[in-house]
Amino acid sequence: MITESNMSDVQEPIVTAAPEIRQIIERVCQLEKNRLDRKSQGHINDDIVKIIKEEVQ
Questions:
Q1: Residue 26 lies in a domain
Q2: What is the DSSP-derived secondary structure letter of residue 39?
Q3: pLDDT tens digits along 28-55
């Protein structure tokens, strides 16, 4: 059973992350959501690496 306490435990690393890290997490989550919406079967690793490289620059 998911409780409010469990959800805050899951969200804690995201909420406390540096803004740059939160941006990476948000972009990767959006990428995954878009891929699920399209039922994409391709590899996601290259896209994630691209996001990280863009944010690090």
A1: yes
A2: T
A3: 999 999 888 887 777 889 999 999 999 9
